[in-house]
Design brief:
Length: 334
C-alpha cells in the first residue's frame, strides 16, 4: 500500500511516499528555517505562508522521485495536529483536496505518533515499549502497548527539551534551530567542563519533566560573562540529557518493557543517543532510535503512521480540520 505523507505542523513542508508503513520510496523537505532564523524562531504566519508556497512543489517532487502518478497512490496521510494552526491548515486542506480529486482515503495523523513511526522505517515496531518523544514542542514519555494503543506517563510541565536548547542557543547568540547549533558548539570543548546547569527533579514518583529553569540558569551564566560559551553549551546539553535519561530510567524501573523507542528532533542529538545507548547496555532492554534524518519533522514518518492508522480503520471526514491542541492519549481508544 503506497501512502503519500504530508507534514506541515511547524516550519518544514515535507512530503514522502512510503510503502506499507516501512519502505521509503521518496522523501522531500522544504524548510523555512533559514527564513525563520531572521526572526530568531518560528513566526506562525510566516510558516503558514511558506507552506502554501512549498506544498505543491514538495508533493510533486515526492511523486516524481517515487516515479508515481497521483493515481498510483492508495491513500494520503497528513499531520492533523498538534502544531501551528495556520500551518496545519495548509497541509490538511491540501490532503483533503487531493483526496477528493483522486478519490483517495485521507488519514489524519497525530504529530507525536508520527515521530514514533519514524522507527517503523528502520524495522517493524516491537511491543510493549517505552516511548520517549523529544521535540521542539513536546517532551513526552509513554507506554506503547501496540499500534494505536499508547498511554502517556509523563510530559513536560513547561518548556520542551528542544525549546530549552533553542532558547539557550538564542542566549548564546547561536542560530535557529538551536539544538544542532548547541550540539556543534558543545563538541568544541577540549576537556570535560566543570560547569553544570541545574537538572529539575520533580519527585521520585513523577515521570514529568521541567526545563524552564535551564533558560534562567543559562541566562545567568551568559550574563556573568566569565564562562566559555562552549562550556555553557556543553552544560546545557548535559542537563537536558541527564533529565531525559534519569526519567526514562525511572519509568523503565516501573514498567520494565523489553523495548524503548526514541523519537523527535532532539533524538538526533549525538550525546543523547550515546547516553541512552549506554543506559540500555546495563539494562535488559533494546533501544531503538531512527537515524538522525528521520528524527526531525519529515513526511515519511507521517506516511508510516498513516498506514497503521488506516489498518485500524481511521479515515478523515471531509469536514474534519486541524486538531490543536490534541493530546497524544486521545489516539488510543478508551
Ligand atoms: O521534531 P522536530 O523537528 O519538530 C517539532 O516537532 O518540534 O524537533 C525540532 C527540535 C528543535 O528544538 C531543534 O533544536 C531540536 O529538535 N533538534 C536538536 C537536534 N536537531 C534538532 N536538538 C539537539 N541536537 C540535535 N542534533
Ligand atoms: Zn516534530
Amino acid at each position: 500500500m503506497r501512502i503519500l505523507g504530508i507534514e506541515t505542523s511547524c516550519d518544514d513542508t515535507a512530503a514522502a511516499v512510503v510503502e506499507d508503513g516501512a519502505r521509503v520510496l521518496s522523501a522531500e523537505r522544504l524548510s523555512s528555517a533559514a527564513l525563520q532564523a531572521r526572526f530568531g524562531g518560528v513566526v506562525p504566519e510566516v510558516a503558514a505562508r511558506e507552506h502554501a508556497v512549498a506544498i505543491l512543489p514538495a508533493v510533486m517532487a515526492a511523486l516524481e522521485t517515487a516515479e508515481l502518478a497521483p493515481s498510483d497512490l492508495d491513500a494520503v496521510a497528513v499531520t492533523q495536529g498538534p502544531g501551528l494552526l495556520g500551518a496545519l491548515l495548509v497541509g490538511v486542506s491540501f490532503a483533503k483536496a487531493l483526496g477528493v480529486a483522486q478519490n483517495l482515503p485521507v488519514i489524519g495523523v497525530h504529530h507525536l505518533e508520527a515521530h514514533l513511526y519514524a522507527n517503523s522505517l528502520v524495522a517493524p515496531i516491537q511491543f510493549p515499549a517505552l516511548a520517549l518523544i523529544v521535540s521542539g514542542g513536546h517532551t513526552t514519555l509513554a507506554y506503547w502497548r501496540g499500534h494505536g494503543d499508547i498511554q502517556v506517563l509523563g510530559e513536560t510541565r513547561d518548556d520542551a527539551a528542544g525549546e530549552a536548547l533553542d532558547k539557550g542557543a538564542r542566549l548564546l547568540g547561536l542560530g535557529y534551530p538551536g539544538g544542532p547549533a548547541v550540539e556543534q558548539l558543545a563538541q568544541t570543548v577540549h576537556s570535560t567542563p566543570t560547569l553544570r546547569l541545574p537538572v529539575a527533579r520533580l519527585g521520585r514518583d513523577s515521570l514529568d519533566f521541567s526545563f524552564s529553569g535551564l533558560k534562567t540558569a543559562t541566562e545567568e551564566m551568559v550574563r556573568q560573562g566569565t564562562y566559555d560559551p562552549a562550556d555553557i553549551a556543553w552544560a546545557l546539553e548535559e542537563a537536558v540529557v541527564i533529565a531525559l535519561v534519569e526519567t526514562l530510567d525511572r519509568a523503565w524501573q516501573r514498567y520494565s518493557p523489553p523495548h524503548v523507542y526514541l523519537a523527535g528532533g532532539v533524538s538526533a542529538n549525538r550525546r543523547l543517543r550515546e547516553a541512552v545507548a549506554a543506559w540500555a547496555g546495563s539494562h535488559e532492554v533494546t533501544v531503538h532510535m531512527p537515524p538522525p534524518h528521520w528524527c526531525t519533522d519529515n513526511g515519511a514518518m507521517v506516511a508510516a503512521a498513516g498506514y497503521f492508522r488506516y489498518q485500524q480503520g481511521h479515515r478523515m471526514a471531509f469536514d474534519d480540520g486541524p486538531k490543536t491542541p490534541w493530546a497524544l492519549q486521545e489516539v488510543s481508544p478508551g
